[in-house]
Amino acid sequence: MVVFTRNNCFILTCSSVCISLVLVYYSRSSIGSMAGYGMAMSAERIEEIEQAAFSMAEKWNSDRKTRISQVCNRIRNDIPQLDAKSNANKHIIVDRKHRIMYCPVPKAACTTWKGFFFQLRWGKEPDADIHTQERTSLIHLMDLDPIERETVMKNYTKFLIVRHPFTRILSAYRNKLEPNGSYETTHADVTKKYYWRKNIGANILEMYRGKKIAKKMIESPAKYDLTFREFVDYISNYKRKAKANDRHWKEVFEICFPLYIEYDFVAKVETLPQDTIYFLLSNGFSDHVTNYQGHATNSSSMRAFTQFYNNLPVESIEALYQRYKFDFQLFDYDPRSFN
């Protein structure tokens, strides 16, 4: 049982600091660029560093798979039984040529890795919005007939990338629903710009402030001020509502079915540079290491994380944990720590 108090919420442990320092490194291009600062490295030294990252990530991956297997055995009877072949996430990507299956988790480097699959299939990333193009330009598990689906899940190399649930939730809020968040600032078209606040933000505001105030805030963009606490309380307490279960904050175990699909590679945003090298080199994609070096997003940096979560009451944090507790357990995240 996890007990939250104001004193023990969100300790940035030494291990996470050390990992963050290690993550400064990784790609051939970034190492090579050090030459401009009098830090040129030989090809042999670069290879040594890559091998160290590979070995580190190989051990992590083995530990993660063992952990998932152990937790699955423990919680299998506590969650709804689903047939992964019939209920598979329609966004799971399949590359037939390279025999790879990837389950994208929103707010866990999925844009970058969708780009990788465009490179594999088309030789380049799309000029237009990658998420829109993906629907028609890539093959998805649900596009296949049941027999081929089963073949993919049994015989293809399967991987996913996960993220600390609390930082993933904060990233989703800041991108989609925060007033003037990153989604709104990157869309000039008003019909797209305010999509999330109109379709989901309005429901949350109506729930906590009433229809009149919600309507006024949606009609007057400058007045919109949905808070992180309102978002957290909504997705924690009203999971059965469709909009509280949007895939951008849906639990990973319900998106990617780790209880029913045995993943070969389980990467984490927090260690993505090393995990990326391990995945690419293990699957014969050494030419892609430079382009897909892997990096953590900064939308939920330590400062932002502390700022937003320290303003939440303990009961809101506890309720949020209860919703995502299986993700915490499966992927070995500490709810009291940033990493």
TrEMBL record:
Keyword Transferase attached: yes
Main location: Golgi
Compartments in which it is found: Golgi apparatus membrane
Protein name, as recorded: Carbohydrate sulfotransferase
Entry GO MF terms: sulfotransferase activity
EC main group: transferase
GO cellular component terms given for this protein: Golgi membrane
Membrane topology annotation: Single-pass type II membrane protein
Annotated GO biological process: carbohydrate biosynthetic process
Keywords of this entry: Carbohydrate metabolism, Glycoprotein, Golgi apparatus, Membrane, Signal-anchor, Transferase, Transmembrane, Transmembrane helix
Any one Pfam family match given in the protein's UniProt record, by short name: Sulfotransfer_2
Residues that span the membrane, as ranges: 7-26
EC number of this enzyme: 2.8.2.-
Family classification: Belongs to the sulfotransferase 2 family.
